[in-house]
Amino acid sequence: MAQQYAFFRGEFVPIEEANISIRTHAFNYGTGCFAGIRGYWNDEQQQLYLFRLADHFRRFLQSCRLLMIELPYSVQELCAITVEVARRQEAREDTYFRPLGYKSSEAISVRLHDLEGDFALFAVPFGRYIQSEEGARVTISSWRRLDDNTIPPRGKITGAYASSAIIKTEAMLNGYDEAIVLDQNGHISEGSAENVFIVRDGSLVTPPITENILEGITRRTMMELAHNELGIETVERPIDRTELYVCDEAFFCGTGVQMAAITEVDHRPVGDGNLGPVCSQLRTLYFDVVRGRVAKYRRWCTPVYAGRE
Ligand code: PMP
Predict the structure, then answer these.
(1) What's the Cα-to-Cα distance from 237 to each of 82, 189, 203, 206, rounded to whole Å?
(2) What are phi and psi of 278, to 5 degrees?
(3) Residue 59 CA, ligand 1 centroid: distance in Å
(4) In this predicted structure, what is the pLDDT of residue 307?
(5) Is 105 in the pocket of ligand 1 (CB under 6 A)?
(6) CATH of domain 136-275
(7) Long-range contacts of the stretch 202-206 (C-beta < 8 A, 24+)
(8) Atom 11 of ligand 1, residue of closest alpha carbon
(9) Residues in the chain with pLDDT < 70?
(10) pLDDT reported for residue 308
(11) Contact 104, 26 (CB under 8 A)
(12) What's the pLDDT tens digit per position in 250-282?
């Protein structure tokens, strides 16, 4: 494999040189936050498009605020660093970028204030996150979603992903592709690492941002594409568990999962148990948009290689 690079301690370095100390605060206490950004390779244009790069970094800086991590970089600078890592490793395939903001201090002390932080970023080739994107089998997790007053799900906080890992592993070891997680009130929040939508009576329905979800960028993308291109509106409201059993269609969306139709929940078929028309149209649209094939949405796609548009 070609040499991979990282941005680490203010410099671009080969990935092998980007290592932290065992004493790092974030490693000990989960006091880091991250983003996940996809780069989509467009073979016809010989171009790598980074999807909604600035939006990811705007949310990333909000996560940093939650953890009192102060970074010396603006959104524009963070975007430029990401493009440079992609260029250095000559990424010519679908690639996943992982920016991290973390408490780099080596102090033994459980707190956020007066501890230095740092920024790092690396990139890896990446394909599907869930194999069965056309028909995922899911379960309702026996675990509950974190609450805004515990570790706020609004931020992508590394420590919170121990909860996501517990949820995901339970689901997979029980033979499912993914889980849907209820919040402390018993309403649907999201998947272990993706937002969720259902289709009922011709509308999209998804939990509002006050229901302990991550404010997903793909979630916003789906709402906008459904409105603009399919004439389908999204209602943001709490969703009961059993609405999943009676809805017409359901799907996950997120940078990692992309767009995955949910065709079975707790052994019950969703709708007729097949990829439905709304999911199918949204999937096609989404993949055309992220690969930079739709001029109207090219503004969401940052090209890595200059002069090739
Ligand atoms: N919820 C959680 C818990 C996630 O980890 C992710 C992945 N970042 C998402 C939702 C989807 O967010 P986005 O569309 O911004 O990637």
Answers:
(1) 35, 11, 12, 6
(2) -70, -45
(3) 11
(4) 64
(5) no
(6) 3.20.10.10
(7) 202/232, 203/232, 203/233, 203/234, 203/235, 204/232, 204/233, 204/234, 204/235, 204/278, 205/234, 205/235, 205/236, 205/237, 205/239, 205/243, 205/247, 206/234, 206/235, 206/236, 206/239
(8) 254
(9) 1, 307-309
(10) 52
(11) yes
(12) 999 999 999 999 999 999 999 999 999 999 999
Structure confidence by residue, pLDDT tens digits, 282-298 = 999 999 999 999 999 99
Please indicate whether residue 214, judged by its CB atom, sits closer than 6 Å to ligand 1.
Answer: yes
Q: For residue 32, give the H/E element and its range.
A: strand 32-34
Of all protein residues, the one whose alpha carbon is nearest to atom 12 of ligand 1 is 216
pLDDT for the residue 1: 64
Residue 99, token pair as written in the block: 């920016």
Report the nearest atom of ligand 1 relative to the CA of 214. 1
CA separation for the pair 127, 218 (Å, rounded): 17
Domain boundary assignment for the chain: 5-125, 136-275
pTM equals 0.97
Give the CATH number of domain 5-125; options: 3.40.309.10, 3.30.360.10, 2.40.50.100, 3.30.470.10.
Answer: 3.30.470.10
Atom of ligand 1 nearest to the CA of 220: 14
